[in-house]
Design a protein that fits this description.
The protein is built from 13 helices and 25 strands. It has 424 residues and is an alpha+beta fold. Strands 12, 15, 20, 21, 24 and 25 form a 6-stranded antiparallel β-sheet that branches. Strands 3-2-1-4-5 form a 5-stranded parallel β-sheet. The chain has a 4-stranded antiparallel β-sheet with strand order 6-9-7-8, sandwiched between helices. Helix 7 runs antiparallel to helix 8. The termini are far apart. It binds adenosine monophosphate and glycine. The site of glycine has 6 residues, from loops.
């Protein structure tokens, strides 16, 4: 099977590693990264030029395109390729509004009675109403820019000054068109988890539940980031919780999308807040999560290429899965100091050769020059380790982390600690 994978992050390195475990897969990657380049053939094209990507697929008999990040989906790449008759594992641009418009997602959940936080929406012309609403409301309160803002468009305000500042900032244009509308949401108590549903629009299977660590500092403090680490399976998602997620969230979401005329094919990421065993939706994403995927696919056993191919064709083959949770995995993200704000790049990474067998180091923001690997982004590597228990996988991951060095390295020390507490 010839597969083209779109993207260049740690998530795509994990997807690439899972795909090539399937039989007879020839993998191409656009644009890829130095880690992916070891297992796939890099395609030197501009992702934004959909016609070029489509021509490449035709010329190279591509059976399946897997799109990793949200931006190419939001730009309509899946639609362009599908209209050229190519199988694509990713939703259409309009179905991806579940992620690309917080307002679309909230109104959709309200319409189909899917559990989520109460909310109110305001556009730029209603700034005064938004400020009045905040002044009368309770704290904390959550303020979200409607559009894609690379994880930076959400503020949990603990008092009215913070809330007012967030509203002023979003409407000031600092988020571009993403901030033209805002959603003000009730703050939900509980613990977060992420679940990926692989779907052909009608049927779905879930992969092992994961927990991300979104904040930059230990103890879930400091700024929100793209994700500083993850582990899977997450004990907070018991089989009772999972049953509720399937029947109260995933099934009505897929049925609702069909009713809206927007059948959803691909990975539906459900970000949950779980309180006393009751899950509510924090957010949807229209793709696999990063860094959750690095952990989730490490414990996956089965024919991943067949799973995604069957979903893309509209005939989901659940028997492609042998086991969704073989052991435990912990992924610790090694970042550049200063991330998620300003940081320096271009430092040589050493120690990658001394990593043991049960550890995979996924590349994210790296660059190869003359056989040496250098830092090239905010999130640089995802050090991912397996173990028979969560505790063991966590210890293995941090042991490997201690062997990797680069200037300005930063990582959290408490990845998976919460999960270990939950398992006791
Ligand atoms: P989002 O991009 O919508 O996932 O929001 C980013 C992060 O903000 C989430 O992972 C949560 O930690 C937090 N968050 C968002 N919405 C809420 C909410 N309604 N209640 C509590 N925390 C929230
Ligand atoms: N890890 C959160 C995300 O992928 O959006």
């Amino acid at each position: 099977m010839n597969i083209l994978l779109i993207g260049s992050g740690g998530r795509e390195h994990a997807i690439a590693s899972a795909l090539i475990k399937s039989k007879n897969v020839h993998l191409f990657a656009l644009p890829g990264n130095p880690g992916i380049a070891k297992i796939a053939q890099i395609v030197p094209l501009n992702i934004k030029n959909h016609q070029d990507v489509s021509d490449f697929c035709a010329k190279n008999s591509i059976d399946l395109v897997v799109i990793g990040p949200e931006q190419p989906i939001a730009d309509g790449l899946s639609d362009s390729l599908r209209s050229a008759g190519i199988n694509v594992f990713a939703p259409s641009r309009l179905a991806a509004q579940l992620e690309t418009s917080k307002l679309f997602a909230k109104q959709f959940m309200q319409k189909y009675d899917i559990p989520t936080a109460r909310f109110c929406a305001f556009d730029k012309s209603q700034k005064q109403d938004a400020l009045d609403y905040i002044r009368k409301g309770e704290f904390p309160v959550v303020i979200k820019a409607d559009g894609l803002a690379a994880g930076k468009g959400v503020v949990v305000a603990t008092n009215s000054d913070e809330a007012i500042q967030a509203i002023e900032e979003m409407f000031s244009g600092s988020f571009g068109s993403a901030g033209e509308k805002i959603v003000v949401e009730e703050f939900m108590q509980g613990e977060e988890a992420s679940i990926f549903a692989i779907t052909d629009a009608n049927n779905f299977v879930t992969l092992a539940p994961a927990q991300d660590h979104k904040r930059i500092l230990d103890g879930d403090k400091g700024k929100n980031t793209g994700g500083m680490g993850a582990y899977s399976p997450a004990p907070i998602v018991t089989s009772e919780v999972l049953d509720k997620v399937k029947s109260l969230i995933i099934e009505p979401t897929l049925k609702g999308m069909i009713a809206e005329g927007l059948p959803y094919i691909g990975c539906l990421y459900v970000g949950l807040m779980i309180n006393n065993g009751n899950p509510k939706v924090v957010e949807y994403n229209c793709r696999f999560g990063d860094p959750e995927t690095q952990a989730v696919l490490s414990v996956f056993d089965g024919d991943f290429a067949e799973l995604l191919f069957s979903a893309a064709k509209g005939t989901l083959n659940a028997s492609a899965i042998k086991n969704i949770n073989q052991g435990f995995a912990t992924c610790v993200v090694l970042a550049s100091k200063g991330y998620p704000d300003k940081y320096e790049i271009g430092f040589e990474i050493t120690g990658l050769d001394s990593i043991s067998d049960n550890v995979i180091v996924y590349h994210a923001g790296t660059k190869e020059i003359d056989g040496k690997i250098f830092t090239n982004g905010g999130r640089v590597l995802g050090v991912t380790s397996l173990g028979a228990t969560l505790k063991e996988s966590r210890e293995n991951a941090y042991k490997a982390v201690s062997k990797i060095h680069f200037q300005n390295i930063y990582f959290r020390n408490d990845i998976a600690a919460k999960g270990i507490k939950n398992s006791n």
